[in-house]
Amino acid sequence: MKAYHIHVEGIVQGVGFRPFVYRIAHEHDLRGYVKNLGDAGVEIVVEGKEKNIRAFLRDLREKAPPLARVEKINVKEIPIQGFDRFYIEKSSTGGGSGDSIIPPDVSICEDCLRELFDPRDKRYMYPFIVCTNCGPRFTIIAELPYDRVNTTMREFDMCDYCESEYKDPLNRRYHAEPVCCPVCGPGYRLYTNDGMELTGDPLKRTAELIDKGYIIAIKG
């Protein structure tokens, strides 16, 4: 049995990196934790068989999420602490060195696009649909580490459905910080410039007004 402390730098917050680490740690039968480190990247502690840890490190470098960019991995052997599982630890707000990069907002992914236009889906035609592979990052974050409480989404408590996705390691919304739906997420309305709310579907009405030459302003 071996134990290692791993420090990862680059674009590793807000891109599904911790859920990715969680999954590959379980695939390689490792114990320990992963957590965000303020503005200093991601910290990982793993315990297990040497060959499993080597395979884990290989996957860490070669199979990172599509939005992640791993720039540096520092590995140091440490004493075994005797973890009984692998988990996502609460983020740390201290110890920052400025080495973590806030990712940009990312356009909708194919999976979310398919759900968006599926009448059977809970988020059918909901414009704020997101997952770990797409959605806002830079424009909603107030400070690092990238956790929901540090974004503008802190004002919106997740409903039971969204929370179940957020906590499911096999779901692509696992620890997707902006996850929401029409029940618990932001809404939207359409007003005239003198403050009168227009009836009907705001998105369809907006498209109709643009077609007629009107100018639409968006206010959050």
From TrEMBL:
State the UniProt keywords alphabetically. Hydrolase
Instruction: Report the top EC class in one word.
Output: hydrolase
Which catalysed reactions does the entry list for this protein?
A: an acyl phosphate + H2O = a carboxylate + phosphate + H(+)
Q: Supply the EC number(s).
A: 3.6.1.7
The UniProt record lists the Acylphosphatase-like domain at 3-90
Q: Which InterPro entries does the record match to this protein?
A: Acylphosphatase-like_dom, Acylphosphatase-like_dom_sf, Acylphosphatase_CS, Carbamoyltrans_HypF-like, Znf_HypF
Active site (UniProt): R18, N36
Q: Which GO terms describe its biological process?
A: protein maturation
The GO terms describing molecular function are: acylphosphatase activity; carboxyl- or carbamoyltransferase activity; zinc ion binding
Q: Which SUPFAM superfamilies match?
A: Acylphosphatase/BLUF domain-like (SSF54975)
Asked whether the UniProt record includes Cell membrane among its keywords, one would answer: no
Q: Does the keyword Hydrolase apply?
A: yes
Q: What is this protein called?
A: acylphosphatase
* Organism of provenance: Thermococcus litoralis
